[in-house]
Amino acid sequence: LQLTIDEYKSSSLAIKQYAYQMSEMLLVLIDSKRTYSDKEFKDAQQAHQENVQSKLSKLHKEIVTIMRQTYLVFKSDGSEVQHYWLNYARKVDRTVEEAFRLNIKRSLLELSKAINGDPKSTPNALFRVMVTLLDDTPGSPPRVEFSPTLARLANTVNSISIQIKNTLSIFKRIPELLTRRKSTLIPVHQNIENDDEIKKIQGMINGGMATNASNLQNYLKTWDTYREIWEINKDSFIRRYQRLNPAVSSFDADIARYTEVANNVQKEETVVQIQFVLLDCSPLKFSLVQHCNEWQNKFTTLLSEMAGHMLLDFCQFLENSRDKVTHIPLTLEQLTSGVQLLEQLQNELPKTEARITPIHEQFNILEKYEFQIEESVQQRLESMNGEWINFQQAIVESEVMLKKQKEKFRSGLIHSAEELKKKTHSCIEDFNSRGPFSSSVNTDAALALIGELRNNLNLLKQEEETIRNGLNVFKIDQPLSKELQNLEKDLDFLQQAWEVTKQWEESWAEWKGGKFSSLQTQLMENTAMGYFRKMNKLSQILKDKNWDIVSATKNKVQQFKKTMPLITDLRNPAMRDRHWNNIKDVVQKLFDHMSDGFTLEKIIELGLEQHSDAISSISSAATKELSIEMALEAIKKTWEVTDLDLMPYKDKGHFKLR
């Protein structure tokens, strides 16, 4: 019996020792001298938990084995002993559960200490987190982010807590293992998970994670100072910058500013510990410095392009201007342009020279920042000063050359002016001898000849204008030729006379064939009056010229005007055959006034206008006779409808109106 008691005590002591060992085998292993990445930490804990789980499983099996061996002693005893045995098994189960609970508690406390530290000290760096500039959203600017992210880090810690608790899920209740009957009690790992103390520790871990996440986000804001470096679109900014056409000093300041910004970035702490997180900012700093380099490259590239264009424009200006100003003028226009260009270039020499310094300044800035310049541009830059000297020498030489050419052209112009006078006299003589002053000339031929004379006149006027403009270059005032002006006036008057003559002839050609009875005398008279006024005005202006065409056309129109009253008399509706016979007797010519051949031309041909007074008298008499006839006809019609009431008068054989 004593031996049995001793074995029982020995077994109970062994179980307690195993339970103690189980409570001490923590499911968290944290090396205080090491910082983990999230994956390293997760893998390390998983490996440790698997190892500890294996050891816990062995101890748990040892306890079950001891219990089974102990039970062999009491296996054959009665129900009361069996009842005590079952209570003992439950007690051992509670001991094992408590050992597991202590293990979980201590494991979570270890994790909480790593997260929150203890009252005496802050936590050591547990996780190593990279601070990066993340650019993973097309169309949006990059952003500063943690790697791993805070959400992923929180998930890692949370998964470790869950794994710690789930490690115990493989362990069944002691009575269930001994009796091989499923226990009605809550599984050990669930019971521990619902423990208030365990929940409190888990809350501390979660709180520590949340607090530090806020601290980490606040830390990110310290980099907002450099936000414009990565947020501003470089290409768009450079395009706007170029449109402002900035001075070279602005380029220097902006390029230097990014050097300063890059230096400030390098001065920022690379490694920063915030609670249990050790931040490594080297990726972010590298990205920011790279952005600064890109900004500098954008500015230097733009400066290089602008400087190259400015250099090319300046060198081309020197070359083109030199070629133009040294060109020997062959015409007066070229001489004028050459003199004007020379004066312009001489006046703008200071302004032109002032373009050189900014070009050198731009390339000095590029050299300062070690920008590689194209070989062709470098060669052009090195030759620029020589081109400037050649340009100045060309101006001096062209001044001498143009002075000689001016004297040559001046002499030529004076000679041309004398020749122009001779041509003018010749043209006037040609006008006086060939001009269509006689009315015997055909109208179209006259106008064609006038056109020829006017072309000759215009050529002389153009030559005169060219000579005057040329002499004006030499400050010589050449007045307009009075002879050419007078010739132009005479030619204008002569052309007007022939144009009116042509219009008259066209009107006469239209009227003369018109039937006598359908002539529009009022329209014809108004039109003829317009022609007469024009020719009468010309005859007054040209009374000293004695041009036959003016007087002849005027007389024709005047003669035509005289026929208008005659036409009116002849078209008098009172005219009867006896009156027409009287007219035929007066003119002593026979004609049929009712035929289609009795036209205006026929009337002129018969010379009726020469007897206009007699015809007018006959027409007037016809009008009076018509009036008498109409009066008699009226009396006749009156008597035809009038009734007379007569009565005898005193029986004397007479009657009177009643």
TrEMBL record:
GO terms for molecular function: ATP binding; dynein intermediate chain binding; dynein light intermediate chain binding. It comes from the Eukaryota. It is found in: Cytoplasm, Cytoskeleton, Cilium axoneme. Gene3D superfamilies: 1.10.287.2620. Residues 484-656 form the Dynein heavy chain linker domain. InterPro entries: DHC, DYH2-5-8_CC, Dynein_heavy_linker. This is Uncharacterized protein. It comes from Scyliorhinus torazame (Cloudy catshark).
